[in-house]
Design goal:
The protein is built from 15 helices and 23 strands. α8 runs antiparallel to α10 and α14 packs antiparallel against α15.
């Protein structure tokens, strides 16, 4: 066995800096004798068994599939990009990027020894079918596939499969500055899926209806397949999954006999659980100052915190009878005080926090433009918000906002039940009360389901980002995107985000992305708060593990290398 990996030196603009807090050594849990087992918490429920769909496209699904779903590359904790040379025979090839010479082309070739857990060889057909399922409905590949983002797939004119190799040809005049992301760890599907299982179940993947059936089956059926070092041997979407080594894995042998991943949304249980040896760690998607302070004092536990790749934001449902009015939306965003939210949640434990003033780029990116501050949105200026409302015909009757004699709202204000989001919702509720709007707080258990069903008026959640950016704007805001949960529809934004994804260079793409973001601010559709600090903790009995704030996989990005410390 040998580890076949290669670093591609692609710079990550704004790679997260880490502040590492390591507790004093001593005490701690006893090392396991016999079976080598690790218990790693995922702090919310995954909504599906695949991550292509809107409901399945959460970090919780991605982490549930860690070590199972094969992919072609991934951003590393230090901001470099690494091709997966277990899966690939060679680095992907850019065949042509000069549109004057012909269409944009590139190819991937899978390793000769790359096989699925049933022994079936991985081929270019697996990638082709995965891309077809990731495309938007207009592509014609699939009638019922609910892809959460089809930008990269929709650019493809032709996919030619020759055994282990697949060659992509883009549509005339289109280019893709981030072409290598097609089926990597950050793609719509988080990797690629086993196409041969469609045929085994009687589905013809070239029939749009039958491809939709395969898509549904992948999302609803616990994988008995794997293309990685581990496979899921037990579990469900309500309690936990259990992973054991994939006997057909051709790469370096996994060093653990079992990984148990319980789903636990109650952060208050983490400290006692790791102290009692019931869990070995977690990389929660949300920050919790109280939990961090308790963890820092535990022996044999390492803790780190840094600005994460998940940025918190408040979204409005534009199809709500009240929120379809852009002036009301602007007033709501103006009344919300982002700094109040950030300071209450992070001021004591992470005073370095920085408000996010661009939906696509961090302030340390060379492409950053502040599209928020001058708008007044997120300022908490209740007087300015009331002025917007009065100019639009609204009026305050005591403490109640009225329009044409009717009370505005109440509006449902929703988020998952975490410490920071609970605090945020209470503050937003108070901010809106200052302009006469009653907001009723409702807690979410199934974020993916709530978003995909548009079951909210106002919602706070987080988008997980990477150093890639050319596909994000279309996923967020295009009127046909399955991830445009609040149903914003703006033709100019559609044109701009399409241009982002088809630009020949990142510089050109960034210009279009900033123009689109400015229009989203005018629409008062998404209010960024900040890139939330993320923390990670692990029992020191576990080796070869670190947080990866560049990836939705977080600490599970290298799960195949986890081991017990000697």
């Amino acid at each position: 066995m040998h580890k076949r990996r290669k670093i591609l030196a692609l710079g990550a603009a704004g790679a997260s800096a880490m502040m590492v807090l390591t507790a004093c050594a001593g005490g701690g849990g006893e090392e396991t004798e016999g079976e080598r087992e690790v218990t790693w918490v995922i702090n919310s429920l995954p909504a599906a068994w695949a991550s292509i769909s809107s409901a399945g496209g959460s970090v919780y699904t991605i982490q549930t599939l860690s070590g199972v779903l094969p992919y072609t590359g991934q951003w590393q904790p230090d901001g470099t990009y690494e091709y997966n040379m277990d899966v690939l025979a060679e680095e992907p090839t850019l065949i042509n990027d000069d549109l004057d010479e012909g269409p944009f082309q590139y190819s991937f070739t899978l390793a000769d020894d790359a096989v699925w857990s049933d022994g079936e060889p991985m081929t270019g057909e697996d990638i082709r079918v995965s891309v077809m399922m990731s495309a938007s409905p207009d592509s014609g590949y699939c009638t019922t596939c609910d892809s959460r983002g089809g930008t990269t797939a929709d650019m493809v004119e032709e996919m030619e499969v020759d055994g282990k190799t697949i060659t992509f040809t883009l549509k005339e005049g289109l280019a893709d500055a981030e072409w290598m992301s097609q089926v990597d760890a950050h793609s719509t599907g988080g990797g690629f899926y086993p196409a041969h299982l469609a045929e085994e179940n009687g589905w013809d993947v070239d029939d749009p209806d039958q491809l939709g059936e395969f898509f549904t089956w992948l999302h609803e059926t616990r994988p008995e397949w794997s293309g990685g070092p581990y496979m899921i041997t037990d579990g469900d979407l309500e309690n936990q999954v259990v992973k054991e080594p994939n006997p057909e894995w051709w790469g370096e042998e996994p060093q653990l006999d079992r990984i148990i991943m319980p789903f636990n949304t109650d952060e208050s249980t983490f400290v006692n659980a790791i102290n009692n040896g019931e869990i070995d760690g977690a990389n929660p998607a949300q920050y919790s100052e109280d939990v961090m302070q308790e963890l820092e004092g535990l022996p044999q536990v390492s803790l780190s915190v840094g600005e994460g790749n998940i940025w918190e934001h408040v979204d409005l449902n534009t199809e709500n009878e009240w929120l379809e009015d852009v002036e009301l939306r602007r007033a709501i965003f103006t009344a919300i005080d982002r700094d109040d939210i950030a300071n209450r949640n992070f001021g004591a434990g992470y005073p370095e926090y920085e408000l996010k003033n661009n939906h696509v780029f961090g302030s340390d990116s060379p492409y950053f433009t502040d599209v928020i501050t001058d708008s007044g949105q997120g300022s908490g200026d209740a007087d300015a918000a009331i002025e917007i409302l009065e100019d639009a015909g609204y009026e305050l009757d005591g403490d109640t906002l009225m329009l044409d004699g009717e009370q505005v709202g109440p509006l449902r204000l929703r988020a998952t039940d975490t410490q920071t989001r609970s605090t945020s919702l209470q503050l937003i509720q108070a901010h809106l009360a200052e302009i006469g709007i009653q907001a009723e707080i409702e807690v979410i258990d199934d974020l993916g389901g709530v978003l995909s069903e548009q079951d909210y008026d106002i919602v706070q959640f987080g988008w997980s980002g990477t150093p890639y950016f050319t596909t994000a704007p279309e996923q967020y805001w295009h009127s046909d995107s399955g991830s445009n949960f609040g149903k914003l529809s703006n033709e100019e934004i559609d044109e701009l985000v399409e241009a982002v994804g088809s630009s020949a260079s990142q510089e050109e793409a960034a210009e279009f992305a900033n123009e689109a973001a400015a229009l989203v601010v005018e629409e008062a559709y998404v209010l960024p708060i900040l890139a939330e600090p993320n923390y990670f903790f692990v029992n020191d009995r576990v080796a070869n593990i670190e947080d990866n704030l560049q990836s939705s996989y977080r600490a599970t990005y290298n799960i195949g290398e986890w081991a017990l410390a000697e």
